[in-house]
Design a protein that fits this description.
It contains twelve helices and seven strands. It is α+β, with helices and mostly antiparallel strands and about 290 residues long. The strands form two sheets. The protein has a five-stranded mixed β-barrel with strand order 1-2-3-5-4. It has a two-stranded antiparallel sheet with strand order 6-7. Helix 3 runs parallel beside helix 6, helix 6 runs antiparallel to helix 7 and helix 6 crosses helix 12. It is globular.
Length: about 290
């Protein structure tokens, strides 16, 4: 069966005479008409909004929706289409993953961060279209968004798997998602569209001042953890929160994995090693 994809469902209508339903959704910036079973449509209890679906085709080449998993989001259809335009190459998979991450944030004290990123259009656009680094990992348009999502997904899922509390998992998710957002600060405030290195941790506090201020007055303990996770760490820093290890490992894994992929991108598939800074790096793939 095909892998799940993210789509924006516009409408689901039940057939009057058949055990089927018609489903209209947006995929790849196009409107798609599909059919599904009445049972699937009824069980999802959902008529419009973001969803993960599994698609196939019948013998008449009709698009068939085989499964629907709704995703709760504060994003509207207009915002969703706008975000597709913001993302590099209109990559809706990343947009869907981003909104799914935000749907995991259910603790009320952390909601200002969700509202912040969905309503600050200029910040959101730069966050989705900027590079994560100059020459190391995710050093291409949209790389910052991709890296941030990868780190947030790994931090949240690993923290859940390791038995951290919901508060720690969701605080770790927010910290991971925005740990590098300060990298857009020069573009936002210094009239340059090129990647500029700098104290991005400090810049992150400047950009997130509004939601951090709200959190500081509503829950001092969550505020203390989140600011500690976002802050730059001096040499000899002693970790105060166990989830910091989870976030650090996720950050390192995303960066080093992408860096390795970049080094092999220009090589034929059967090449299983390359030299990086004088060291040999290996890989295994189906051609090895």
């Amino acid at each position: 069966m095909n892998k799940p994809i993210f789509v924006w469902i516009r409408n689901i209508k039940f057939s009057a005479n058949l055990p089927t339903a018609n489903c209209e959704f947006i995929s790849s910036n196009s409107t798609v008409q599909a059919i599904t079973s009445a049972e699937i449509a009824r069980n999802c209890q959902f008529t419009h909004g973001l969803a993960q679906v599994i698609l196939s085709h019948d013998y008449n080449a009709n698009t068939v929706v085989c499964a629907i998993k709704p995703i709760v989001t504060k994003c509207s259809e207009q915002q969703y289409c706008q975000m597709l335009n913001f993302s590099h190459h209109n990559y809706e998979g990343l947009v869907g993953r981003f909104l799914r991450l935000l749907s995991f944030v259910t603790i009320i004290e952390l909601q200002p961060f969700v509202d912040f990123i969905l309503t600050k259009q200029e910040i959101l656009q730069l966050f989705m279209s900027s590079e994560a680094s100059f020459k190391h990992h995710h050093s291409y348009k949209g790389g910052l968004f991709e890296h941030s999502i990868e780190v947030a997904e790994m931090t949240y899922q690993n923290a859940k798997h390791l038995g951290h509390s919901d508060i720690e998992c969701q605080t770790g998710l927010i910290a991971a998602l925005f740990h590098d957002i300060g990298k857009i600060y020069p573009t936002l405030n210094m009239n340059t569209d090129k990647y500029c290195s700098g104290p991005h941790e400090s810049y992150s506090f400047a950009l997130l001042a509004q939601p951090l201020g709200i959190l500081g007055t509503s829950n001092s303990r969550i505020f203390s953890m989140l600011t500690d996770l976002l802050a730059s760490k001096p040499y000899g820093h002693k970790t105060r929160y166990a989830i910091e290890h989870v976030l650090k490992q996720a950050d390192r894994s995303s960066a080093e994995s992408n860096y390795a992929k970049i080094k092999f991108n220009t090589l034929p598939p059967h090449y299983y090693f390359t030299k990086v800074n004088g060291n040999v790096m290996y890989r295994l793939n189906s051609s090895s």
